[in-house]
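Entry 14. Ran structure prediction on the chain below.
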Amino acid sequence: MLKFAKAFTRDERGVSAMEYAILAGIIVVALTASMTSFKTAFTGLWTTITTKVNNAGQ
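Output, structure tokens:
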């Protein structure tokens, strides 16, 4: 059992996968935060575009 515990603590094969998972999580959080902060600007932009397209067809 002691050999298994020592081998387990020295095994670094899963470390890269964990690093990539943490990095992906950070990217998702950053994208979510940026989209939330720009939500009002995007909503206003699409409203303006929709209004102009609807008024151009009349």
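Residues 15 and 52 are 53 Å apart (CA to CA). Will compare against last week's run tomorrow.
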